[in-house]
Design brief:
With 433 residues, the chain is an all-alpha fold. It has one domain.
Length: 433
């Protein structure tokens, strides 16, 4: 594949798989949007999903999707989570679709998918090895740096990775080097790449530091106080962001995906528009981490990990270095304030965006709504009750943000029941076993 190529169409099967996932999830989202009053009609969701489907149709034959085979893992495309992540990344394109040419929409989608898999693989490598903070951060920096470098030697990267990645993980070296090279090849030919290199560099340094701090979540190197010390100093758009929320933001890369989109846009945002957009994505990054973590508290505790959602729930307790995280069993009294806080941050994301940006297609409310739908919809229905518990808190937060910043929509008639009735079954299912 040449530097400026987007391939020969061999990825059609993968594209169709992600497209089918988006369409199926869209039907589910429309049903949920009609069940709750989010302050915008379900046609907003239906239209956004339809446009995404059209985008995927245009991708057929547009670019080559790498096989993404990895030692011991098979193809990453065989993992349902990978399809889900790629679908979620594709949704971010919707905001700037009108400013990106059809060919560059395909390139942006390819670049975001590659960055998703790169981040996922790096996360697996750090989780599965015995790396120090310094080693983990150096590995992230090495792989993220080519996103902003004009000159890049993939052979040199491959040799460096062989020296840094631990022996039992050497099967990941070729894949990681390939993902990094492909991402660089797409980005360096994007029309506005030069304008956003410094912003991407800042985001990548934040991500490298945040992900390196995750080594202190593990049982063998656990130091939540170390995480708190770093996270408390991380910048935030509002001073009331807690240290677990700042840490949650530091390990997410949604803002990086948005900057990839902006690299491929034909027009540039004004400084105030860019700041509003990135402030909104600060909150969305926090939410991506918390929504992703909230289902995994018991499983993570069994593996000796101190979950970030658990830090938000029980911040004072997890600071005790002698405490085993599996001994903390959250109850509904823990979940309810966390879900309420997450809903509040969703509302802030919308109002932050609307401070300087027009939003005729309701993109930001759409993302706030779709995030839990994407991340809490499990094939076995395991996240169903938690999803509804969160949507009950989320609906008024999005509704209030929409009414404060957008033209009035025809919403659910007054007196209509919003969502499923609360039940003891839902409450009990949220308790750690």
């Amino acid at each position: 594949m040449s530097d400026n190529s987007i391939g020969n169409g061999e990825g059609a099967e993968v594209i169709e798989r992600v497209r089918a996932y988006v369409v199926d999830l869209g039907r589910r989202a429309v049903e949920l949007c009609e069940l709750y009053d989010f302050g915008f009609p379900s046609s907003v969701v239906r239209d956004q999903i339809a446009r995404l489907g059209q985008d995927f149709d245009s991708f057929r034959g547009a670019f080559d999707v790498p096989e993404l085979a990895s030692g011991g893992r098979g193809s990453l495309w065989d993992h349902e989570q990978s399809t889900r992540y790629a679908a979620g990344a594709a949704m971010i394109t919707a905001r700037f679709r009108g400013a990106i040419s059809p060919a560059n929409i395909a390139r942006a989608a390819a670049a975001k998918a590659l960055h998703e898999f790169q981040a996922d693989l790096l996360d697996d490598i750090i989780d599965g090895g015995a790396y120090t903070f310094e080693e983990a951060r150096a590995l992230y920096r090495m792989c993220l740096a080519p996103m902003t470098e004009a000159d890049f030697d993939s052979n040199e990267l491959q040799m460096e990775l062989r020296n840094r990645i631990q022996a039992h993980q050497q099967g990941t070296v070729d894949l990681l080097a390939s993902l990094t090279a492909r991402l660089h090849g797409l980005l360096c030919h994007a029309p506005n790449w030069a304008a956003f290199r410094s912003e991407i560099r800042r985001e990548n340094e934040r991500l490298a530091t945040g992900q390196a701090l995750t080594v202190f979540q593990k049982r063998e190197s656990r130091s939540i106080r170390m995480i708190r010390g770093w996270a408390s100093r991380f910048p935030a758009p509002h001073p009331d962001l807690t240290w677990p929320e700042r840490f949650a933001r530091s390990v997410a890369h949604g803002s990086g995906l948005c900057l990839i989109d902006l690299c491929f846009a034909e027009e540039r945002l004004t400084p105030s528009e860019l700041r509003s957009h990135l402030n909104a994505w600060y909150y969305f990054d926090v939410l991506m981490t918390l929504v992703n973590n909230v289902l995994d508290i018991p499983d993570d505790a069994e593996e000796g990990l101190t979950n970030i959602a658990l830090m938000s729930m029980r911040g004072a307790e997890v600071l005790d270095p002698t405490l085993d995280p599996s001994a903390i069993r959250p109850t509904m009294r823990d979940y309810e304030p966390l879900l309420k806080r997450m809903a509040e941050l969703s509302g802030r994301a919308i109002t932050s965006a609307h401070e300087a940006l027009d939003d005729p297609d309701s993109f930001y409310p759409f993302v706030a709504f779709m995030m839990p739908v994407v991340m809490l919809t499990e094939p076995d229905g395991g996240g169903e009750d938690l999803l509804h518990a969160y949507l009950r808190a989320l609906a008024p937060a999005i509704r209030d943000a929409c009414r404060a910043t957008m033209p009035a929509w025809a919403t659910t008639p007054r007196g209509t029941r919003s969502g499923r009735p609360y039940s003891a079954r839902i409450a009990s299912s949220l308790l750690c076993p």
